[in-house]
Amino acid sequence: MDASELKKIVSLGETANVQFKRKFDNQDKVAAEMIAMSNSKGGMILFGVEDKKGDIVGLEYADLQSIGNKVATIANDLVKPQVFILTEVVVVDEKKVFILYIDEGVAKPYKDGNGIIWVKQGGDKRKLTDNHEIMRLFQQKGLLYIDEMIVPNTKITDIDKAKVKEYIMFAFQNSRKNVKISQKVLYQNLSILKKENLTLGGLLVFGKEPQRYKPAFCVKAISFVGNSIGGTTYRDSRDIIGTIPDMFYESMLFFKQNLKYIQKGRNFNKPGILEISEIALEELLQNALIHRDYTKNAPVRLMIFEDRIEIVSPGCLPNDLTVEKIKLGNAAIRNNLLVSYCSKLMDYKGFGSGIIRAVNNQPNIELINDEEGNQFSVKIPREQIP
Questions:
Q1: Pairwise CA distance, residues 110 & 14, whole Å
Q2: Domain annotation for the chain: domains and CATH numbers
Q3: pTM (two decimals)
Q4: Can you name the residues that pair with 296 across neighbouring β-strands?
């Protein structure tokens, strides 16, 4: 980094990725900052910059040597697991600034010596104490699959036998084996049941009434009059419940009943075509229902405005996925069970190619990975028909 680049960074103030410190004051505070950045998206700590005003005050040679030794000790001994760091000294107007670079960690979650997990929150940091957030951090690194966890108070009678039978017919239609096992063992072998309780994946795909236990895991659909989410008038509003396949088909029906059909050059005697590609809508809806973050107690939202539609899914992209990567077909499976079940029960492959098909059939799709809001949004403009 050169002096002009450093000046520009300092002029923008502290952020989630940039922290200022006048000097090395407390190793526990520095360790917590390193942990928070490792658990988030990485960042840098600038020593020799006044954290209140953002003035570059600089450091003496002895301070630079001392800080270098101390941050190396912290990275090796006070952060668990240890992190790898890079350091640099940049001279700005004859004032020396020590820069500590911290990459996003590959072995999250990172903790301090007391077992405390720190994460970034805007320009500050905080302790992670909420169980759902801790699970989300484990989930991001593939250490935990939330859909494999049990749903308390559920029992075998909550399973819809007909849905399981349908799944077995599709999944094992080529199998000639006829092994007789009890119903309970069958459900356990399919990971629908763990001991006496349903797994979350089992409930969401094979449950009789999934929202009885997980009421927020539904679809909120609304067709607004106008273009504002704050509008008070609507044409249609529905709470769509049931299993994931049920909600998918009902959500597609909502779109088909509330969007326009246009001629698009077709013969007058032929039916119109939905104004937005059905293939694109199917792919985007399946992604929203199957790949959403189920550690967030929130519904999928479908919104039809006069100038656009929006599909909002709880949770941002997992791991190191970006919008650019998913457009190229890269994938990271967040919900193993759901992918396994839905690839048999729905027209869904789970190969990571759904976004490619959606964009190919509807090129004007806008994909938004909102990390601060922890949600993933899709926006598609509607063709303005006079």
A1: 22
A2: 3-129 (3.30.950.30), 146-209 (no CATH), 219-381 (3.30.565.60)
A3: 0.70
A4: none
Q: Which amino acid is at 120?
A: K
In the block, tokens 């504002």 appear at 228
Listed as own residue / partner, the contacts of 322-331 with beta carbons closer than 8 Å and 24 or more positions apart are 322/369, 323/367, 323/368, 323/369, 326/352, 326/355, 326/367, 327/355, 327/356, 327/359, 327/367, 328/356, 329/353, 329/355, 329/356
Instruction: State the Cα–Cα distance between residues 258 and 253, nearest whole angstrom.
Output: 9
Distance CA 105, CA 128 (A): 16
Q: Give pLDDT tens digits along the chain (386 positions).
A: 999 999 999 999 999 899 999 999 889 999 999 999 998 889 999 999 998 888 999 999 999 999 999 999 999 999 999 998 999 999 999 999 999 999 988 778 899 988 898 888 777 888 877 766 777 776 665 556 789 889 999 999 999 999 999 998 887 765 545 557 899 999 999 999 998 999 999 999 999 999 999 999 999 999 999 999 988 899 999 999 999 999 999 999 999 999 998 876 666 666 788 999 999 999 999 999 999 999 899 999 999 999 999 999 999 888 778 899 998 888 778 898 999 999 888 877 666 688 999 999 999 999 999 988 889 999 999 987 55
Please give the full DSSP string across 249-295, using - where no structure is assigned: HHHHHHHHHHS-EE-TT--TTSPPEESS-HHHHHHHHHHHHHSS-TT
Nearest to 332, CA basis, from 323, 344, 320: 320
> Cis peptide before 81, with omega less than 30 degrees from 0?
yes
